[in-house]
Design goal:
Number of helices of chain B: 3
Strand order of the largest sheet of chain B: 2-1-5-3-4
CATH topology of chain A: Cytochrome p450
Largest sheet of chain B: 5 strands, mixed
CATH superfamily of chain B: Beta-grasp domain
Radius of gyration of chain B: 12 Å
Number of strands of chain A: 12
CATH class of chain A: Mainly Alpha
Shape of chain B: globular
Largest interface: A-B, 22 and 20 residues
Bound molecules: protoporphyrin IX containing FE, FE2/S2 (inorganic) cluster
Radius of gyration of chain A: 21 Å
Distance between the termini of chain B: 30 Å
CATH superfamily of chain A: Cytochrome P450
Structural class of chain A: alpha+beta
Number of strands of chain B: 5
Number of domains of chain B: 1
Largest sheet of chain A: 5 strands, mixed
Structural class of chain B: alpha+beta
Oligomer: heterodimer
CATH class of chain B: Alpha Beta
Chain lengths: ~425, ~110
């Protein structure tokens, strides 16, 4: 089937909008997947662009690869601090009474550095490899259950299931209750507008339930011999075992949230990209050893987090524009990942690129994604197991996309499996 | 041409050559030396080009400066020591001919 991209009249309409009126914060642009056309214009006409008015207030858009890199690596000028608004285009702490856990992704040095250093060993690649056999076995079991030759929703049956399974494995979370993890992750990042929670009170209550659950797991692990799961590691490591509980919980939630919808949408995004590029799918079937290079290309192509935001701590010039102290600065990774001046054939999905890891999806600098090798490991295992079983995962209907300017998500995607 | 030897975590030695002005990261990548990823393109932004300078060479290469981006990034890398540097921050010059760099088990 032909998977639609923007119709010609839509493209013409976007081309005629005066540049100063462009507002890329609107979640609908991501949902209808026309956002790329807007970013093409910004990169060509005004790569550092100021939007005066939007539902999230005024903000700067940084759209070129090198400018994004310059902001991301300049943490002394561009702050991630939650109290200044945090790391997303929509301010954190903007809602009274919402329970906000403190996470180091939204902190500046020195606090960021201390917390990150404490948690880093838990996701060190050498530790993760110990978990590979379990993740592989469980991925295989999920895939073996799937119906062959009939339509079903890939997102619910596979993408969410595989991600939940790997999270549960990483934390050695009680298996039967593993969907709780997904639920809490969704809740932790949800505002009532999304329909995931009814109100901030309801959200607060669920998160307290989550805190109590993890407290019990922590108590259980600390009284057992050390094991390879992340909770046990944090409970026993000298750097983390005396952490105040709320800090531990913030860090734990960051690991869960960080790896939840990002991985989920990379799994779905990869299937979609291969269907939109049949020649690449053929290459993969011919030579599955390309999976190692395909995985970072999928992560670039999908760009699961469209942006990270910073707040300027002083006046600063980028691309000839004067950013003022206090301004909101948005690094659009999704745009930088399509920047021809940094990535050859950036508008094409190519599974055997020369430098596939040269992309912005994990950010750069001191906040660069801590789970980046873990994410790649999971996706590699999953694709190897898919490849063993199915010659093709065919997308059979229009995918539906998430209404969000931060998470680039696919919410539903009908597929049919072809056995190998 | 300047000679650089990369020693892998299991002790295997690979000698390669690189032109003056390139960095130790390029020396590894142009010659497909495994274990140096260099994701960011060599601009000191990712720490996936971590190496341990052989103690004999550390004074010629120079130790890690205690402040600056290189130190900020290396604090989160796995298995760092006082000899840790980022390969993209080691420009090759004639005085480094014969340099020995140890590649960690994994980049991260
Ligand atoms: C494809 C999957 C993933 C993508 C695209 C992704 C993306 C990102 C991005 C863009 C950042 C911020 C970078 C910056 O500000 O420069 C980040 C930070 C982070 N990610 Fe990921 N992530 C993924 C998977 C994971 C996984 C599996 C984990 C779990 C271990 C994780 C844990 C974190 C943490 C803890 C941070 C905060 C790092 C800091 O502030 O120092 N991520 N991630
Ligand atoms: S290549 Fe990224 S820090 Fe050296």
């Amino acid at each position: 089937m032909n998977i639609q991209t923007a119709a010609p009249d839509v493209a013409a309409e976007i081309a005629s909008i005066p540049i100063e009126e462009i507002d890329v914060a609107r979640p609908s642009l991501f949902q209808n997947d026309t956002i790329g056309l807007f970013f093409d214009r910004l990169r060509a006409e005004e790569p550092v662009h100021y939007c005066r008015e939007s539902y999230v207030g005024p903000y700067w858009s940084i759209t070129k690869f090198d400018d994004i890199m310059a902001v991301d690596t300049n943490h002394k000028v561009f702050s991630s601090e939650a109290k200044l608004g945090g790391i997303a285009i929509q301010d954190m702490h903007s809602v009274e009474g919402a329970l906000e856990l403190e996470m180091f992704i939204a902190m500046d040095p020195p606090k960021h550095d201390q917390q990150r250093k404490a948690v880093t060993p838990a996701v060190a690649p050498s530790n993760l490899q110990l978990l590979e056999p379990v993740i592989r076995k469980r991925a295989g079991e999920i895939l073996d259950e799937l119906p062959v030759g009939e339509d079903f929703d890939w997102v619910d049956k596979v993408a969410i299931e595989l991600t939940t399974m790997t999270l549960a494995t990483l934390f050695d979370f009680p298996w039967e209750e593993r969907r709780k993890l997904t639920r809490w992750s969704d809740v932790a990042t949800a505002a009532p507008e999304t329909g995931i929670v009814e109100s901030y009170e309801a959200r607060r209550e669920e998160l307290i339930g989550c805190a109590m659950y993890f407290k019990a797991l922590w108590d259980e692990r600390i009284n057992q011999e050390p094991k390879n799961d992340l909770i046990s590691m944090m409970a026993h490591s000298p750097a983390t075992r005396d952490m105040p509980f709320l800090e531990f919980l913030g860090n734990l939630m960051l690991l869960i949230v960080g790896g939840n919808d990002t991985t989920r949408n990379s799994i779905s995004g990869g299937v979609l990209a291969l269907n939109q590029n049949p020649d690449e799918y053929a290459k993969l079937n011919e030579d599955p050893s390309l999976i190692g290079k395909m995985v970072p290309e999928i992560i670039r192509w999908q760009t699961p987090l469209t942006h990270m935001r910073r707040t300027a701590l002083e006046d600063w010039e980028i691309g000839g524009k004067q950013i003022k102290k206090g301004d909101k600065v948005v690094m659009w990774y999704l745009s930088g990942n399509r920047d021809e001046s940094a990535i050859e054939h950036a508008d094409r999905f190519i599974i055997d690129r020369k430098n596939p890891r040269h992309h912005l999806s994990f950010g750069y600098g001191i906040h660069r994604c801590m789970g980046n090798r873990l994410a790649e490991l999971q996706l590699r295992i999953i694709w190897e197991e898919i490849h063993k079983r199915f010659s093709r995962v065919e997308v059979t209907g229009q995918p539906e996309r998430l209404f969000s300017n931060l998470v680039r998500g696919i919410t539903r995607m009908p597929v049919r499996l072809h056995a190998r | 041409m300047i000679n650089v030897t990369f020693v892998s975590s299991d002790g295997e030695r690979r000698q390669v050559q690189i032109e003056e002005g390139e960095t130790a990261r390029e020396a590894a990548l142009y010659n497909d030396v495994p274990g140096i990823d260099g994701d960011c393109g060599g601009v000191c932004a990712c720490a996936t080009c971590h190496v341990q300078v052989d103690p004999e060479w550390i004074d010629k290469v120079g130790r890690l400066m205690s402040d600056g981006m290189e130190a900020d990034l290396l604090q989160f890398a796995e298995g760092t020591t006082e000899y840790s540097r980022l390969a993209c921050q080691i420009p090759m010059k004639p005085m480094l001919d014969g340099l020995v760099l140890h590649v960690p088990e994994q980049q991260y």
